[in-house]
Amino acid sequence: MHTSISEILKEKSLKPSRRSLPCLAQSQTHPINLNHFLSVPLSPEPKPEVDVTVSLIVLCLCAAEDGKDHYMEESEVTTCETRADDSSVFGTPASLLQGKNPAASSGLFFRDGKKRIDYILVYKKSSPQVEKRCTFEKNLRAEGLMLEKEPSLTNNDIMFVKVNAPWDTLCKYAEQMNIRMPFRKKCYFTDWKSKTLSSRFHLRCRQIKSWLPRNPMKLDKEALPDLEETDCYTAPFSRARMHHFTINNKETFFSNSTRSRIVHHVLQRTKYEDGKSKMGINRLLGNNTYEAAFPPHEGGYKSRHPIKTHGAQNHRHLLYERWARWGIWYKYQPLDLIRRYFGEKIGLYFAWLGWYTGMLIPAALVGVFVFLYGLFTMDSSQVSKEICEANTTIMCAMCEDTCEPWTLSDSCVYAKVTHLFDNGGTVFFAIFMAIWATVFLEFWKRRRAELTYDWDLIDWEEEEEELRPQFEAKYSRVERVNPISGKPEPFQPFSDKLSRLMVSVSGIFFMISLVLTAVFAVVVFRLIVMEKFASFNWKFVKKNWQFATSGTGVCINFMIIMSLNVVYEKVAYLLTNLEHPRTESEWENSFALKMFLFQFVNLNSSTFYIAFFLGRFAGRPGKYNKLFNRWRLEECHPSGCLIDLCLQMGVIMFFKQIWNNFMELGYPLLQNWWSRRKIKKGGGGGGGQNVENKAQLPQWDKDWNLQPMNAHGLVDEYLEMVLQFGFTTIFVAAFPLAPLLALLNNIIEIRLDAYKFVTQWRRPMPARATDIGIWHGILEGIGVLAVITNAFVIAITSDYIPRFVYTFKYGPCMNKAHHHEDECLRGYMNSSLSVFDMSELKNSSQPRYCRYRDYRAPPWSSVPYEFTLQFWHVLAARLAFIIVFEHLVFGIKSFIAYLIPDMPKDLCDRMRREKYLMQEMMYEAELEHLQKERKKNGRRYHHEWP
């Protein structure tokens, strides 16, 4: 069937049928003014015949006696390839072709200027793995790929293997991989609906919209001419039904990303030795047979001519100008172009990051309003006034030997800063952020459904994943029959899997215990410096010992966090490899979960200590609880502990985002600068030509000198954003400016990642995906945890509940129906401080009475220093608030999740109608094809549905 179709295509070009219009936009389109090397003829030229009289140089891959590759005359050696065609001929070097054949010298084509480079393999000529490489490349040719070798211009030891997939090979594997291709123009469900229902109303709306100013965040259509919708129905490609598909140009029918994905599929399944597990480019990269394997970029990302006047040179140039430049930070992302160039998996990451950034705008605005409310009411706050005016209120000393009592008014600034974050808007903002997290996730599901529809991923099911080479090598002796494919495959026994899982879990708990040990060390440090600062000779430090203690503790904790992160990545990598996951997705999910657990505990353990344990077990004067009977436990400021939590979050979140952004951009820039420096010096220790102008290098040499994408893929990118999401939601009641910091960071992060992908990294293999994977479940877990933690922060850490109880039970307004908050809090500070008789201490020469923060009976009471009734009222109110808050917020979250469907209704209707129309179109197209075949053959043509 395939042969007959090919013959038909050679004899006569395809024409669109009368009943169906051709798809105007192919799956791979180019800007209007792309260079001429992207334009290729409709049908590929026949292969040029090799003149045997001309002395041609070929590269023999067979091992020589000295273990190195040699260039020899074809008449003198017998090549190790089974066939010698134009793909194995080593002709004129690329450096000599410049000025003669622009397409060949651009580095995107073979030397003939016609065959497009779909993949690049890099190896060292000094590598001893010559036999494996020879067998692998011979098998690649047997699979239908075409290879051509080229030496590096910057390093004499580096050799590039250019890989091209011809049309027949692309069709063969596109059918095997069930790649969906366009075959008819879409007829939208809303086309007939808009003509009959309220057309005048829609016309008026469009007129009013045209009068409004244009949205500056949108990209101009003239700037992105190739982002027109591919309004075509798609179906899994089939060579038997090739007449169904709209093939205007064979060279552009399969996009560059699709061609690279097909070649990668072949590379992963080609053997290099005899044996069941001796296959795949991953294993060859692991044993240093090849140094790298990557699809090439589509050219340079910069041009001497402005893009507005001369157009874009290629998609990479277009992405740089309309996405990766810092000057367009406020523009929407060209997601369709990102998806076409980098694949759906990376496109979904940037779509999710853009959606998350956009959803942070209302959260940041509300957080700023809450902060401004605290700022404007800071001076008028009754609690702050009472603290600042308490010149005669003597507070108990912070330590027993060298410290002296201090007056409450000394902490006036501390109390005012506390009011910025601990005010009446705290509860409202915590409820808002809990609902915001639910709305964010629910609307992302809808956005993801729209993207999967637009990107033709609705009916895409991930093919049976290949086994990891490490798994095959470990369990090659134990086999079982795969229930899906019916073929034998390596099998991991349950006992071995359980034992490895137990070791991995033990390693995780050990690392978490290491984190807790580090937190304990920071707590001890805070206790030591608290006494030192409280008895400091410098009056400024002595007066602001709370700030000094918290600030130094946070800085030490931040350095420990960043140091342990380096260790965690290596440990997570070792533990994941120890488990021997079966597939790459299982490995990535396991590694991502470990990294999240490690870094989440590392970042938030000290924050949880400050939020829920700081000052809870300090004791009272005369009977303080001490650590190791030496250091007295730290207690909260009379105005509350929330300012310590706020300081902890602000410092870690601010400095961590700066450090991450610096490392993401700084490290690749330094590495690439070092590579360019070595090139200018003459090959970087490997010899090579002295290339003064980088533009002289072909594209494969330029890409080789770029940095590879992270070995963990998008795990690091998602992990950074998910941890930030946790900071933004879990303790947001203590730090309302967290969404604003996250928003500013993400605006930078989008362009930084875009710049990194386009300019600093080699082009990653375009992979497909329908969602963000395990990270969605982690985000939902963080949303649930955020409700619980914010309830405890408001009830336990902040002073909202004690003030609430005082207002309605003990304050001057307890029997009044209408009252003002500040008036009802008069006397609150005095009510929240207990009295201690300092004469009970030995060798005490201080004033007789001092105050401390607690609800205890005075020393002259019948039960001195026992908890008062107000303490139990506050405790009951805190527990009641936690229960009411959690049930209320969880109820609202569940109701919102129920109201918001995962897929828009109009999208569901459109998908159902298109499925119906697609079946009819395929049936009509098949009938039309059979009628043409019958007329052509002059007889009745019986043919079943293929």
Q: Any overview of this molecule?
A:
With 946 residues, the chain is α+β, with helices and mostly antiparallel strands. Among the domains are: 119-186 and 231-294, no CATH class; 332-483 and 515-676 and 703-803, no CATH class. 52% of the residues lie in helices and 8% in strands. It has 31 helices and 19 strands. It has a four-stranded antiparallel sheet with strand order 5-6-4-9. A hairpin with a 2-residue loop joins strand 14 and strand 15. The chain is elongated and about 115 Å long. It starts with a helix and ends in a 9-residue tail after the last helix.
How is the secondary structure organized here?
Elements: H1 2-11, E1 57-60, E2 70-73, E3 89-90, H2 102-105, E4 119-124, H3 130-142, E5 146-151, E6 158-164, H4 167-176, E7 180-185, H5 189-196, H6 199-211, E8 232-236, H7 250-253, H8 256-268, H9 281-286, E9 292-294, H10 307-310, H11 315-324, H12 335-342, H13 344-376, H14 382-388, E10 394-395, E11 406-407, H15 412-421, H16 425-454, H17 469-474, E12 479-481, E13 488-490, H18 494-534, H19 539-543, H20 545-579, H21 584-612, E14 619-620, E15 623-624, E16 626-627, E17 631-632, H22 642-681, H23 699-704, H24 715-730, H25 738-760, H26 774-797, H27 800-810, H28 821-824, H29 828-831, E18 833-837, E19 849-853, H30 869-899, H31 905-937
Antiparallel strand pairs: 1-2, 1-3, 4-6, 4-9, 5-6, 7-8, 10-11, 12-13, 14-15, 16-17, 18-19
Helix pairs in contact: 11-25, 12-13, 13-16, 13-25, 14-15, 16-26, 16-30, 18-20, 18-21, 20-21, 20-22, 21-22, 21-24, 21-26, 22-25, 24-25, 24-26, 26-30, 27-30
